[in-house]
Amino acid sequence: MKAALFTAGSMLLLLCPLALAQDEPLVIGDDVTFDPNIGFDDSLFADPFEETAADSSDNWLDDFTFRISQQLSAQLHEHEIGFGALGTLPKQSEIESNRLGLNVRYQNPFAPGWLLQGSGQYRIYWPEDYEYRANGDSIETEGRINELFLQRSFSSQSFKLGRQTVVWGETVGNSVLDVINHVEFRDFSIIDIEDARLNQWMLVWDYFGSDNSSRFSTFINLYPEFNPAPVRGSPLFFDPGYNLPDYDRNGKVLLEAGTQYKRSSEGSDIAFMAAYLFENQLRYEPPAPGLVDARPEINDFLLLGFSINRAIDKLLLVFDLAYSHNVLADSFAFPGTTSLSAPVNLRKDQIGSSFGFEYAISNEQSLSLGLQAQKLLDEKEGLEPGQSLINEGVFGSWLMRYSNSLRNGDLLLSSTLQGDLQADSVLLQLGLDYTLDDNWAISSQLMAISASSDSQLRAFHQDLRLSATLSWSF
What we know:
The protein has helices at about 1-15, 130-135, 195, and strands at about 65-75, 80, 90, 95-110, 115-125, 140-155, 155-165, 200-210, 215-220, 255-265, 270-280, 285, 295, 300-310, 315-330, 345-360, 365-375, 395-405, 410-420, 425-435, 440-450, 465-474.
């Protein structure tokens, strides 16, 4: 009954009059992590090298942008998933998310060459939300600072200190080089890596060549963090029978560092990069006898990378290449799902590539495709008799997107298909974003999943999810 009422309410939102729209459409799926580009006027993003300070007579509130949103999402298909001798898992038709969110962004170029920028979020989880149920059927709240940095820019250099992200690679949403910042997949309302990426405390230095055709970029991650475990009660949560704690640094100093050189020419960019990193996904060993907490392990590795793109009329071709030295075998689980210790605990080298294209069909329509393929080198070396790897041979994923902007940009229709190279799973997402006026917007999303018994998404086979969000920005 709840799911039926939810579906009817969502359809009413979709049928709102398509009129009086002015702003850019909102991107679906910001209920957990705050994407600073969602729902904000492009005029906020001033040139960091602009030597004009903010008018001191302006109201200080002009530097803030607020967004309040209410989201509902539900799993609609009631079914069972078989696990052989382990039995079946019943999947009920129920509301999973019912939450009110506040996103705040602050950006102030307070002096020539200076920029202070930050963003944060606060959530209230209402009845029927899984966070409400996990909190003993009580209203739960949560807040955090997402982005907070100070930038100082000169004619050819820029320094940025604070919570921020560093993105390498050209293949949007599916790059083997986009492994610097940790990520969080708490809900299925966020499935894209660029939406789930989390900020970290970093110092970033950029040096631009005299003709602006080249750039050196170096970062130091002052406090490397790791992918958080799924929240209890969330769709991606599994219960191993013991706790999955955060990594205990116990006074240890962890640092990451990397540098990139990028050269631009007419219609093309090429980049080389190197970094010392920790794997974002923790690896858990079972608890010691008599204890309830698993033992998280970290692993450091070296990354060498190369990327290139080439624009040909309306087509942009992209290619990324990554060589990882001393990564843990079998550690590359789907972010947010199980990362428990596998029988094999070996360090190996890995080669990976991602490639694809972005095609502007017209000013309103675009299509993109990204393929990612990885392989462990000497994968059989060090294995004991009877041992095998989870990731044998070539493994990876693919991602295809289509978008169509209508009614002068007020209505955005989108679709996403993604799956793995072994054809063990496929996820389909259909989205509709509609801007009602300068302040109000609605969005909806329909998601369907199909997975085989060999897929990490097996527990979500035949799931059908619908979500709707009403937002007010000012």
